[in-house]
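Build the 3D complex.
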Amino acid sequence: QKEVEQNSGPLSVPEGAIASLNCTYSDRGSQSFFWYRQYSGKSPELIMSIYSNGDKEDGRFTAQLNKASQYVSLLIRDSQPSDSATYLCAVNTGTASKLTFGTGTRLQVTL
Amino acid sequence: EAQVTQNPRYLITVTGKKLTVTCSQNMNHEYMSWYRQDPGLGLRQIYYSMNVEVTDKGDVPEGYKVSRKEKRNFPLILESPSPNQTSLYFCASSSLLPSPLHFGNGTRLTVT
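Done.
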């Protein structure tokens, strides 16, 4: 079982819709969770971080964490074509050295 | 401007010819790390450093070396590159996890 799993996609949503991206992780001791956005050929950039159960909202983005079920999700409201990218889920198990990334979900926002 | 700077951005080399990819950050971060990214495999950690003179292996360290003589610099060395090291490489830094990582712009390496 991979430590951090994401559906590779592509996930296709129409402009203006809500995009829902999911990530599951295997280590119950994981404490910190991050979503990065990566455009093709570019470096990952941080979208959201979340550390406790529940929802965290930042503009059009909402991160949701459920430690009991070991999943974290990212919702993007009012999706725009510029949101088309690969979204990487990253999980820190609590050690100071390890941030494990999923393989990413490719999102396509269609006109 | 706070940033992580990698050089070069693109590099084509031949098997066995030693190369160094430089990485420098201006944020006074303790933690620095190298990742490689390959299609279908995601970002995999090569080496990381918690502070000056402290380095350790990540998930895929074979064929790579690093050093951390100064806080700001964390070069990646390939002593004898092979074609299976053709990849997109990222350097990243943070003020110790779980703080978010800041990534450099990447180095696309091709080994023929």
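The mean pLDDT of chain A is 93.
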